[in-house]
Amino acid sequence: PVVIDLECLDYGNPVSSAIQLSLQWSGITLCNYDAEKQKSFFQGYLAAYDNDFRDYKSVFGLTYTWIEWLEYNIQRALGTCQDKTDQEMGLSEVKNTINRIKYIRKIEEKIKGNLQLSK
């Protein structure tokens, strides 16, 4: 068994947090999505915290919150950061984030199918 520490969560939207964490734990950040890992995340999450919400497919757009990360890194790549190393990291993250967004778009239907949860 794997324990996922959710102390990073704040008073934000738990539905958004659940989707984002399920995608991260399923390998989306490395463009290597594993549907079974996402299912396992939701099984554990809903066993510990069942908010009765099951229509995660309807809020699929939340998976594209990487746009904010992209914007932040574009600013870094343009030099609004402290030093050259940070600027280079920003450029690298711009490339990674664009690839991640394209990957999510490519497998969107697969992810949506996995977000149809039943009680």
Task: Write a structural description.
This protein has helices at residues 14-25, 35-48, 66-77, 84-106, 108-114. With 119 residues, it is an all-alpha fold. The protein is built from five helices and no strands. It is 57% helix and 0% strand. Helix 1 (14-25) runs antiparallel to helix 2 and helix 3 (66-77) packs antiparallel against helix 4.
Itemize the secondary structure elements and their pairings:
Blueprint: H1 14-25, H2 35-48, H3 66-77, H4 84-106, H5 108-114
Number of helices: 5
Span of the ends, CA to CA: 22 Å
Class by helix and strand content?
mainly alpha
- Shape assignment: elongated
Order of helices and strands: HHHHH
* Helical content (DSSP H or I, runs of 4+): 55-70%
* Count of individual domains: 1
The low-pLDDT segments are none
% residues in beta strands: under 5%
Cα-atom radius of gyration: 16 Å
Question: How confident overall, as mean pLDDT?
Answer: 85
Count of distinct strands: 0
Assembly context of the chains = single chain
Summarize the main sheet. none
Features:
119 residues; mainly alpha; single chain; 5 helices
Briefly summarize what is shown:
With 119 residues, the chain is mainly α. It has 5 helices and no strands.
